[in-house]
Q: What sequence folds into this?
């Protein structure tokens, strides 16, 4: 009788342990299930990120290729136009250099009148953009001084030199000490070394000069 009473607590303890183990197993299964779900979601997010990155890279690549193709087409068109322009014959009394035609006047005029004369010819006062062009212009000018398309412009910070199209002048084309300016100053070609120099139009002896047009 006593032995049976001693065995009952063991049975109850075993049942309690079994119940705890079952609950732990259930908790573990739920935890692993949640882990699997979260891992799956993480995998999907990573896959979505990789896919989105792949799409963006390909779109960017296609965009760059399209831009490159467009630039190549534009460059070919520019080369074609340049070749056609080079083949064109310059009008009488005009001289070709590169893709432009140049006209040296024999009549002396003020700078503004000189520019109007060039514009009436479908051109403008010459704009020199390279050392080679400057050498050519100096040879075309031959002697004396001729107006160019270079003028001193008033700005909020003072004055600056620029060509008639608004582009900046290459300072290496200037003669030494010629970069100071006043409102009435214009660029002329050339000094004894073939460099650009400035002339103030309202000074006596500077008002009228020959000029060089470019188109």
A:
């Amino acid at each position: 009788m006593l032995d049976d009473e001693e065995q009952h607590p063991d049975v109850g303890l075993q049942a309690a342990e079994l119940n705890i183990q079952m609950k732990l197993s259930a908790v573990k299964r739920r935890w692993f299930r949640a882990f699997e779900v979260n891992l799956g979601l993480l995998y999907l997010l990573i896959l979505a990120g990789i896919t989105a990155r792949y799409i963006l890279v390909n779109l960017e690549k296609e965009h760059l290729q399209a831009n490159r193709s467009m630039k190549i087409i534009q460059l070919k068109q520019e080369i074609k136009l340049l070749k056609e322009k080079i083949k064109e014959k310059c009008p009488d009394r005009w001289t070709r250099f590169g893709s432009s035609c140049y006209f040296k006047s024999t009549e002396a005029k003020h700078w503004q009148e000189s520019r109007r004369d060039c514009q009436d010819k479908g051109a403008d006062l010459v704009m020199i953009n390279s050392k080679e062009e400057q050498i050519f212009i100096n040879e075309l000018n031959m002697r004396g001084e001729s107006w160019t398309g270079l003028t001193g412009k008033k700005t909020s910070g003072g004055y600056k030199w620029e060509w008639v199209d608004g582009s900046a002048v290459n300072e290496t084309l200037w003669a030494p000490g010629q970069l100071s300016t006043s409102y009435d100053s214009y660029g002329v070609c050339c000094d004894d070394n073939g460099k650009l120099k400035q002339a103030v139009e309202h000074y006596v002896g500077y008002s009228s000069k020959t000029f060089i047009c470019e188109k």
